[in-house]
From TrEMBL:
Residues 51-71 are annotated as: Disordered. SUPFAM superfamilies: Actin-like ATPase domain (SSF53067). InterPro entries: Actin, ATPase_NBD. It comes from Spodoptera exigua. This is Uncharacterized protein. Pfam families: Actin. Belongs to the actin family.
Amino acid sequence: MSGPNGMLYGGDEIGALVFDPGHHSLRVGYAQEDTPKADIPAVVGVGPATHIPEPEEKVPDGNVTQSGKVIRSPSEHHPALFTEAVWTTRPAREKLAELLFEKYQAPAFFLVKSAVLAAFANGKSTALVVDAGASQTSAVPVIDGYALVNAAVRSPIGGDHLAAQAKHMLSNMHIQMLPIYSIQSKEVIRERERGRYTLKTLPAGLTHSWQQYMLKRQYEDFCHCVAQISESQYEERQAASVPFTHYEFPGGYHQDFGPERFKLTDMRGGGRLRRGRAACAVGLRRGLRRPGQHPGLAGALAKDLAARAPSSHRLKTTAAPNPTERRFAAWIGGSILASIGSFQQMWISSQEYDEGGKGQLERKCP
Ligand SMILES: Nc1ncnc2c1ncn2[C@@H]1O[C@H](COP(=O)(O)OP(=O)(O)OP(=O)(O)O)[C@@H](O)[C@H]1O
Ligand SMILES: [Mg+2]
């Protein structure tokens, strides 16, 4: 039952927490809110011995992501809803339940497929959810709120692959990506002129993992600003007509990028993705897409799907106009679900877990 500030669980009003873990980041926040409280980078490494000040990162609604503690409340007060991929293995799900109940003493726990939640966030219970993440791109058919696990397909091509391609391409073009924290000052120079900059004396104790992490973020930024997806296979003539976009590197070097914008994304092996999408189109009644932020992806998907779906299928495509809503779609779906009154009886309570053990998971969260 929902109360004014949260929901009633065992007679107490408490706020459920929603977790959407990914390879790039973990989204976490309170159910019923519009956006997660934090989008925490999913990195394992050793930070620098000395603190290097960084401008605070903001998620677009103004919430500030913080390193350190984000939710300052004891875990035993909050039911926890986690999103999961359709191919999450049974031992992994059981381990998570064990952690939540036995280590964190959560009062209740629930697992939902992220594709189902992304569909909910878009107001649909039947959809084909295409999710371009960091480690992979997947297409999962959802029918009446259930993900069709056997029909789901994935390709290991996602944002991480793209960042690696950007690194490769820039090194072939002899463009140096200097770490932004290493630049003391730079001069204003003409386009394609060699950068003139002075380097900072870096503090001792900068770890390899931290430096790699910072550099990867820079390649990602380059991809976000420059990459463009072509509606068809890469073709030299068409690529030549793409509008140029300007990019300045940390060392001050700057230039326009044109055909490279398509080239970057063409290395993604569109063929594999295309086959995946075709396999999914079967059994669909209505289509939903959740394209990533890359310009052109929506158009390319629409064209492909229309060409491959049987003509009897009416395809309707949806994508939240706002990139925040798109990136947080699964989290937002979780936030909605966990705040619905009739959902409250679905939670696996700690009591049920104590009595029925991990078997509860298969029964209550199929
Ligand atoms: N504005 C943007 N333009 C293009 N790509 C973006 C943008 N913002 C984030 N990305 C990319 O999206 C990817 C992260 O997407 P998402 O948060 O869906 O991944 P994830 O769920 O953490 O990872 P996975 O689904 O692989 O486990 C990263 O590779 C990131 O570089
Ligand atoms: Mg993801």
